[in-house]
Amino acid sequence: MSVKTPTTSSIKTVNPATNQVEKQFDVMSEEHIEHILASAHGAFQQWKKTPFGRRATLLHNVAAIMRDRRDELGKLCTLEMGKLHAEGVGEVQLCADIFDYYADHGEQFLADKPLETAIGSAFLSYQPIGVLLSVQPWNFPFYQITRSAAPNIMAGNTMVLKHASNVPQCAAIMEQIFIDAGAPIGIYTNLFVPGAKVSQLIGDTRIKGVSLTGSEAAGASFAAEAGKHVKKSTLELGGSDAFVVLADADLDLAVKTAALGRLWNAGQVCVSPKRIIVLAEVAEAFISKARAIYENIRIGDPLDPSTQLAPLSSEKAAQEIIQQVETAVKQGAKLVYGGHRVDRPGAYMEPTILTGIKPGTAAYSEEIFGPVLCVYAVKDEAEAIALANDTVFGLGGTVFGTDTAKAVAVARQIDTGMVYINHTTGIAAELPFGGTKNSGYGREQSLAGIHEFVNEKLIRITTPDAPY
Ligand code: NAP
């Protein structure tokens, strides 16, 4: 893809630590897109017949390249969306682990599954369906792609990827990594197209399945378009995870886990602890301990290893989060700490603590995609569970407590796709990821994820003399 001096394209690298435009990319022409779709479709005809062992070799090669280049790829994340370099390197290592995991386990996940039947025998055969369109957000530029690509490519599908417009270099380098790893042309291809072009792609008959990770608004229009064309879709959307602190929790550990967890990726994580729910009798202590942590957070250059809080992903994002905090305060919330821009160039804002958020206000119901810790005080466990569930979102969540059986009992009552005990919602190659309610449907990773875009075909064998 040619790199050009500024045009009107929104596909560009803008360093959030400086707000300077670094590189701009052309939107692909209709002919270019047609060529990519034809290649992906053509490649599928071979890839679906390629033995698991050869698919696994490709994924292991991708993993090895990512591991070797983790420092450089981590820096690219920092350049394009601002995350701490150490977080970027960690993300790339995780991606390598995910590629290895699906290379090692994909065949087993996709092995024929015998079914019990009264007559003859029957089994399910898991067969790839074709070219998948994957639309991904910027917040984990490599991980989001990997979660979608590794299981699905191992399953024998091919993929075209539309990444967020602000991480084009990460998008382009991922395609190059596949090529360098030995992928036949068309197995994995990057598309430089704006969000507005996606509906046209969904309608293309060569695209057989579609997935989007991003905002609720984008997900709703994406799924509507997929429905119109009877295409299988999965959605990984926003979240407003509750972090429920039970009476028997180690308070210091809970505060540290929640407060620092909220700053991971500058708070721009779909499964960040966005609503902290504590019992009223410890709320004051919790808030003052969280404040003490935030007062000592080092904000600065995301490439500096001593920095703890990086800029937000863009100037627009910083302005939007500050606006959300200001609206919360206007609607009656108390600003305990932060809430302002940092006096330096770039999309920086202070770590922030809000309390006293009331039902019916914007901050109560909206996702805040930045370093804002919202603390709610409740009278008992029942109220904590009710508050945790009083949201349209259902992505992740945390229960903090020393009595594991009790914490698990509370976790069962939280209406989300994932609940972690004594940890903020995390990620591991072998675990499923996904939500319920307005956080989307379907799963990525694990057995559930690798089965999303395969045809679970029934094959039944009966003998010629079978009665029916
Ligand atoms: P976004 O605006 O929805 O963008 C996500 C992706 O969708 C981008 O590639 C974007 O392209 C594209 N897009 C935007 N509008 C579209 C449309 N109408 N049709 C098709 N594609 C469209 O998301 P964001 O606000 O940047 O990202 C943050 C959101 O993602 C948060 O809500 C966060 O919680 C959620 N998220 C969820 C998960 C999860 O696994 N559940 C993980 C990470 C993030 P352009 O960049 O070109 O607009």
Automatic annotation (TrEMBL):
Could you tell me which Gene3D superfamilies the record lists for this protein?
A: Aldehyde Dehydrogenase, Chain A, domain 1, Aldehyde Dehydrogenase, Chain A, domain 2
Q: Which GO terms describe its molecular function?
A: aldehyde dehydrogenase [NAD(P)+] activity; succinate-semialdehyde dehydrogenase (NAD+) activity
Q: Which UniProt keywords apply?
A: NADP, Oxidoreductase
Annotated coiled-coil positions are none
Q: Which InterPro entries match?
A: Ald_DH/histidinol_DH (IPR016161), Ald_DH_C (IPR016163), Ald_DH_N (IPR016162), Aldehyde_DH_dom (IPR015590), ALDH_GabD1-like (IPR044148), GABD/Sad-like (IPR047110)
Highest taxon of source? Bacteria
Where the record annotates domain Aldehyde dehydrogenase, the positions are: 8-458
Q: Which Pfam families match?
A: Aldedh (PF00171)
Q: Which PANTHER family does the annotation name?
A: SUCCINATE SEMIALDEHYDE DEHYDROGENASE [NAD(P)+] SAD, SUCCINATE-SEMIALDEHYDE DEHYDROGENASE [NADP(+)]
What family does the entry list?
Belongs to the aldehyde dehydrogenase family.
What is the name of this protein? Aldehyde dehydrogenase family protein
Q: Which organism is it from?
A: Acerihabitans arboris
